């Protein structure tokens, strides 16, 4: 992550199933998976497009292994593997059915292992900051949020009934103990206001309003050098968010979604940490444009706390959205 305002104590550890992993606060985990975690989406076959190449050790089934692609059990195993690497109880991470909307919903308190279906939305908020949250992408922007709690907000109460720390100085200097969130920001979602809606709901749920009280990690996504679009689409996008205006390395119109997201978030007083990695250029990540249908990686946030919950039984995995 390129970051000149990293919270004290944050570390990167690109190992195992993760391309990036940070610990920006007490017990707080922020991470983005790589292809080594496998395909984490049930709605994607895991089979690369005809003529595309697969990398060994990516954890996904290719056309020569498994016929129709990833079995649902393989996706379940991949999700459990990521949870085990983070120390999250199996099946406890919450996902969404992503539909390229600007809709934000609160966490239901039920993970993919027990929820009958993932809700249709493109951002998910944990008011207590204790729910493990995931967002799926394969070129669109995965944005992960953590926050300091407003001094006016009451302390978060966990499912064990105990109050958590709140306000500056509780458990450390300005700890990130407030609401957390994840958002899927494709072109449509970014222009329709998914990031503004996420920040607004976080503040309603108790995040601080001072600059930097909310931190955002913009994960790997297709870059402005690679995201080719029609000229009219570039004009429409840059008219709304000027920072998105871009040109591909081969000289055609493009949109720079990461730059646009950073501009939007900074205008809202959010401290931004932005990955320089392009999904289309980097084979360590799934890319819908490079290999349609091959898989999805995820951005995650969760807080490791005693008494957070136990592993649910295996259940229905629900459904998820269509594109990166």
From TrEMBL:
It catalyses: inosine + phosphate = alpha-D-ribose 1-phosphate + hypoxanthine; adenosine + phosphate = alpha-D-ribose 1-phosphate + adenine; adenosine + H2O + H(+) = inosine + NH4(+); S-methyl-5'-thioadenosine + phosphate = 5-(methylsulfanyl)-alpha-D-ribose 1-phosphate + adenine. Coiled coil: none annotated. Keywords: Copper, Hydrolase, Metal-binding, Transferase, Zinc. It holds the Pfam family Cu-oxidase_4. InterPro entries: Cu_polyphenol_OxRdtase, Cu_polyphenol_OxRdtase_sf, Cytotoxic_necrot_fac-like_cat. Residues 60-69 have a biased composition (Gly residues). Residues 70-81 have a biased composition (Basic and acidic residues). Transmembrane segments: none annotated. CDD domains: YfiH. It comes from the Bacteria. Residues 45-81, 151-178, 300-324 are annotated as: Disordered. Purine nucleoside enzyme that catalyzes the phosphorolysis of adenosine and inosine nucleosides, yielding D-ribose 1-phosphate and the respective free bases, adenine and hypoxanthine. Also catalyzes the phosphorolysis of S-methyl-5'-thioadenosine into adenine and S-methyl-5-thio-alpha-D-ribose 1-phosphate. Also has adenosine deaminase activity. PANTHER family: PURINE NUCLEOSIDE PHOSPHORYLASE LACC1, UNCHARACTERIZED PROTEIN YFIH. Belongs to the purine nucleoside phosphorylase YfiH/LACC1 family. This is Polyphenol oxidase family protein. It comes from Citricoccus parietis.
């Amino acid at each position: 992550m390129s970051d000149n305002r990293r919270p004290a104590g944050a570390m990167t550890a690109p190992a195992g199933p993760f391309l990036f992993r940070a610990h920006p606060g007490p017990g707080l985990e922020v991470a983005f998976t790589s292809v080594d975690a496998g395909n984490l989406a049930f709605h994607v076959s895991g089979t690369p497009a005809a003529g595309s190449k697969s990398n060994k050790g990516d954890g996904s089934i290719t056309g020569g292994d498994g016929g129709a692609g990833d079995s649902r059990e393989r996706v379940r195993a991949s999700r459990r593997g990521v949870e085990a690497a983070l120390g999250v109880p199996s099946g406890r991470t919450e996902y969404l059915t992503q539909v390229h909307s600007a809709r934000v919903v609160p966490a239901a308190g039920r993970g993919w292992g027990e929820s009958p279906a993932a809700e249709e939305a493109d951002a998910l908020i944990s008011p207590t900051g204790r729910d493990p949250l995931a967002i799926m992408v394969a070129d669109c922007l995965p944005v992960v949020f953590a926050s300091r709690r407003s001094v006016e907000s009451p302390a978060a109460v966990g499912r064990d009934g105990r109050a958590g720390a709140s306000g500056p100085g509780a458990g450390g200097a300005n700890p990130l103990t407030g609401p957390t969130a994840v958002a899927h920001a494709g072109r449509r979602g970014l222009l329709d206001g998914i990031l503004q809606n996420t920040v607004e709901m976080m503040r309603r749920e108790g995040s601080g309003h001072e600059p930097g009280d909310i931190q955002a990690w913009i994960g790997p996504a297709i870059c402005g050098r690679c995201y080719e679009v029609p000229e009219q689409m570039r004009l429409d996008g840059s008219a709304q968010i000027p920072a998105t205006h871009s040109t591909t390395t081969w000289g055609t119109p493009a949109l720079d979604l990461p730059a646009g997201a950073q501009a939007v978030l900074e205008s809202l007083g959010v401290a931004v940490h932005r990955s320089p990695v392009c999904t289309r250029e980097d084979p360590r990540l799934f890319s819908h444009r490079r290999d349609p249908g091959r898989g999805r990686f995820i951005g995650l946030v969760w807080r490791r706390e005693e008494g957070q919950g136990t592993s649910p039984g295996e259940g229905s995995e629900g459904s998820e959205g269509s594109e990166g």
